């Protein structure tokens, strides 16, 4: 297998950042796609369009309702951070709809964090550097030190507790059923972004 050098990874990240959008631009894109009955990615299907519509509603809800503990807020505000947070996603991804708004709430707390979004299928070279167990799982967050352009951490595709639930279910049943996916959505709704917040704060 070909080994990719650190320099090459930095170049791939740089190219992807040049092609990135802000969180607000991503939200606007998803809303526009809902109006057009479409979705991101090369393949437009009824299922993916429906997921995009559902995710637009989820993100609107989380944009309004995610709460961060006051102590954590001041901790993040007072940290000396100079990072770009680059997240890989697609409009139809259910996990991403729950995670991206939470990441945005954290990024907004510190001026040293530049939060950028790219689409997976338009950035395959980037995605292939950050696989999860060999698969192109999203959402994937990459934390980049702006002074050195080094990747300091990655996160995703799911919060830690959700990852455990999914892995345990796969071990027992082989693949994820629609019923399990429904249970996972209920877990996200109960969790209210708190596991994602705790996970990312640990990375900082």
TrEMBL record:
It comes from the Bacteria. InterPro entries: Thioredoxin-like_sf. This is Thioredoxin-like protein. It comes from Olleya aquimaris.
């Amino acid at each position: 297998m070909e080994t990719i050098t650190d320099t090459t990874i930095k170049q791939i990240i740089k190219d992807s950042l040049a092609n990135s959008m802000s969180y607000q631009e991503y939200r606007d894109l998803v809303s526009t796609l809902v109006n057009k009955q479409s979705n991101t990615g090369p393949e437009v299907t009824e299922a993916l369009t429906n997921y995009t519509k559902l995710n637009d509603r989820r993100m609107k809800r989380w944009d309004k309702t995610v709460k961060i503990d006051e102590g954590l807020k001041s901790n993040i505000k007072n940290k000396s951070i100079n990072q770009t947070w680059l997240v890989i996603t697609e409009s139809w991804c259910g996990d991403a709809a729950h995670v991206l708004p939470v990441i945005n709430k954290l990024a907004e707390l510190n001026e040293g964090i530049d939060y950028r979004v790219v689409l997976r299928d338009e950035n395959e070279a980037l995605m292939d550097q950050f696989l999860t167990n060999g698969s192109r799982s999203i959402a994937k967050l990459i934390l980049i030190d702006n002074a050195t352009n080094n990747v300091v951490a990655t996160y995703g595709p799911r919060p830690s507790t959700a990852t455990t639930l999914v892995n345990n279910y796969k071990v027992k049943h082989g693949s994820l059923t629609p019923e399990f996916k429904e249970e996972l959505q209920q877990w996200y709704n109960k969790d209210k972004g708190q596991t994602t917040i705790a996970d990312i704060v640990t990375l900082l």
